[in-house]
Amino acid sequence: MLPLYQIVYQSTANKPFSCQELGQLLTYARANNEKHNITGLLLYNENEFLQVLEGECQELKRVFEHIEADPRHGRIRLLSNGPIGRPTFPNWRMGFVGDCADFFEQVRGYVNLNSPGLLATAAPGAVPMLLVLLADFAQGPYAENLPV
Question: How many CB atoms within 10 Å of residue 132?
């Protein structure tokens, strides 16, 4: 079995995503990630994305290169990149804050960022700093406060 790696990045949407566009992104990302054995979490709040991707190193590199080339993203910042012992988010999830929360409540894989149970989706023993970063992201304006 190949070692697991984790990438954490933050980016800014070049234009606001509608609920329908976020739904399409969720459907595409889930299918692609399941096909390539990638797990993680994608959060969206006020035109900002924060994503944790976990999987085999070459697969993550391919996915991240695709993200960097995606014209919907700007100001992409790699926050963390390295090996991990086990997935922090073994069941791929996507969370939103804002008007889309009601729209997605019944969608498999959706988690409401305003929910106190947000971080309950993390595996036991998850990296504490990652969980703090995710919680801060869910709280609101954060882009300037994220670590470099």
Answer: 11
